[in-house]
Amino acid sequence: MKPNYKNWMPKGMIYAGAAGTGAFFALYLAVRLTGRISSGWRTALLAIGLAGFAVGAVSTTWMTLMYRTFSYDGKRQLSRRIIEEIAAHVSLAEGSEALDIGCGSGALTIACAKRNPGARLLGVDRWGKEYASFSKKLCEQNAKAEGVQNVSFAQGDATHLDFPDEHFDAVVSNYVYHNIPSRDRQAILLETLRVLKPGGIFALHDIFSKAKYGDMQAFLQRLRDMGYREVQLISTTKSNLITPFEAVWMELAGSALLVGKK
Known about the structure:
The protein is of the alpha/beta class. It contains nine helices and seven strands; from the N terminus they run αααβαβαββαβααβαβ. It has helices at residues 11-33, 39-70, 78-87, 107-115, 136-146, 185-194, 210-213, 216-225, 244-249, and strands spanning 97-101, 120-125, 151-155, 168-174, 196-207, 229-235, 255-261.
């Protein structure tokens, strides 16, 4: 049995893009082949059809390239490399408990569990309709396929974690918070860190751009002032996970690992 971690670029989005591109091209051809439309409407519809086709073709190609790059089974395997990089920052003692927020298909939860067989890992996710192929059942199937037993999965909300303060020895997350509609994503980070024990470690990966998070350097200083230790923001373009060119075309500019200890 082989694990199936899916893809960060859902196939449904690619299919929808391709369908939209085809629809615009069909509109263009229909207008070109009919003579029953007034010249003004004809010109406008031809322009709409052609512009829609061009935009759709570019976006569908871009999504397809992202799908191939993120694929766990492809040549680049960027998703796997990022997951392993995050997990490498998590070292847990026997009997420790760790939380993976937004676990998706269970990849990061399982990677951390494999590195820390004496610890317990819990993955939580809301498993929304935008990532309909991800589910609790899929996470459990992947854990079974990997032969990992020190994991469990449950429904959860990253903005309001149903756990007491200082409950976990580690918290991790991958590529989650930028997808959550919010005017203050730093507050979501603080909610994540709320459940971390003193001395606990955290490794959080996301697109920490100023547009999405505001001033992250000021946030790092805020964490230090709160007593967090060894707080770092490590750009994925500087850790050889991704090139600056790839960061731009895959919209991962600002992608980084926020790591440290409480």
